[in-house]
Amino acid sequence: MSLRNYLDKIRPNFEEGGKLHAFKSVYDGFDTFLYVPNETSKSGTSIHDAIDSKRIMSLVVLSLVPAMLFGMYNIGYQNALAAGKLADATCWGMFLYGMLALLPKILVSYIVGLGIEFAWAQWKGEEIQEGYLVSGILIPLIIPVTTPLWILVLAVAFAVIFTKEIFGGTGMNIFNVALAARAFLFFSYPSKMTGDSIWVAKDSILGFGYTLPDGFTMATPLGEIAQGTSVNASVCDMVLGLIPGSVGETSVIAIAIGAVILLWTNIASWKTMLSVFLGGTVMGLIFHSTGATPIQ
Question: How many domains does the chain have?
Answer without folding.
Answer: 2
